């Protein structure tokens, strides 16, 4: 007897892949060329929630720094969100001068948040 299995709905994950690809300024064609697959395959994953093969799934989330925990473990606190992974990827590409600017910016944001709390 076959057991009934509900297929996972990949639409939300497909949208996250699309968002991550766009935030990296990458076209479907560029990503498809990098992965040696058809752009239509990527489009169907992003737009229709097509189930990718495990290998393609792995490559997509790795290349685009997409955190899958939020999709597979929705009730668990996510260690690193997709945004955090993407930011870390950008930081890894920066030199020391760039990091000084980013540190000052982050400190400014934290100071502004702290002042906002003090006013309330």
From TrEMBL:
Which Pfam families does this one have? DBD_HTH, HTH_3
Q: Does the keyword DNA-binding apply?
A: yes
- Which domain of life does the protein's organism represent? Bacteria
Q: Check the record and name the PROSITE patterns matching this protein.
A: HTH_CROC1
Q: Which UniProt keywords apply?
A: DNA-binding
Domain HTH cro/C1-type, residue spans: 17-71
What InterPro entries does this protein's entry cite?
Cro/C1-type_HTH (IPR001387), DBD_HTH (IPR041511), Lambda_DNA-bd_dom_sf (IPR010982)
What are the GO MF terms of this UniProt record? DNA binding
Which protein, by its recorded name, is this? Helix-turn-helix
Task: Give the organism, scientific name.
Answer: Anaerosphaera aminiphila DSM 21120
């Amino acid at each position: 007897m076959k057991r009934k299995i509900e297929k996972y709905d990949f639409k939300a994950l497909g949208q996250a892949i699309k968002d991550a690809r766009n935030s990296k300024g990458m076209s479907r064609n560029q990503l498809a060329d990098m992965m040696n697959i058809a752009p239509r395959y990527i489009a169907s994953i992003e737009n229709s929630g097509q189930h990718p093969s495990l290998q393609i799934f792995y490559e997509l989330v790795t290349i685009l720094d997409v955190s899958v925990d939020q999709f597979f473990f929705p009730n668990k606190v996510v260690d690193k969100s997709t945004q955090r992974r993407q930011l870390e990827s950008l930081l890894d590409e920066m030199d020391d001068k760039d990091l000084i600017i980013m540190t000052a910016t982050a400190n400014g944001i934290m100071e502004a948040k702290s002042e906002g709390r003090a006013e309330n």
